[in-house]
Amino acid sequence: MELKELYEKTIKILKVESAEGIPDALYSAVMTNDFNIHKEFNELTGDLNRDYLQAIFQYYLADRKEKKQDYTPPSQGRLLARITTVENERVCLDLCAGSGSLTIQKWLTNPKLKFICKELDSNVIPLLLFN
After folding, report:
1. Dmax of the chain from CA atoms?
2. CA dist., res. 124 & res. 72, Å (int)
3. What is the DSSP string of 5-34?
């Protein structure tokens, strides 16, 4: 699916007018356990193995000038998830979690891990929680 189509369908699902409303709408969905939004988004994307919200955030919301925000490409996330695998691992700490792309890739290698995600940008935290 093209980014523009993903974006347009996402803002329709979230009932917002623009990208700026996405973080608040996602935060509300998470905090109220609105599983309908989750279900609609999952039906749209059809794949929980990829961080679709990352593409939307990076293109429409990231502050690349002042905060130098950039995100982990999916291929790099898959590589890091594999090379950081150790025997008897129990915890995954993602210190700059962003929208959760790396955490998703690590979860795919071992969903039984305890995941601790840290993120400072309040605009991206709702995307992380939703993912």
Report:
1. 47
2. 14
3. HHHHHHHHHHT-SSGGGHHHHHHHHHHTT-
**Beta-carbon contacts of residue 80 (< 8 Å; ≥ 6 apart):** 72, 102, 105, 106
Check residues 51 and 65 and name the one with the higher pLDDT.
51
Q: Model confidence at 35, in pLDDT bands (50, 70, 90)?
A: very high
Counting runs of H as helices and runs of E as strands, what totals does the chain give?
7, 2
pLDDT in tens, 56-73: 887 777 666 666 566 777
Comparing C-alpha atoms, which of 47, 51, 56, 48 is closest to residue 9?
56
**Nearest CA-CA partner of 96 in 58, 128, 66:** 128
What is the rounded CA–CA span in Å between residue 18 and residue 37? 17
Least confident of 34-38, 39-43, 72-76: 72-76
pTM over 0.85: no
First to last CA, the chain: 18
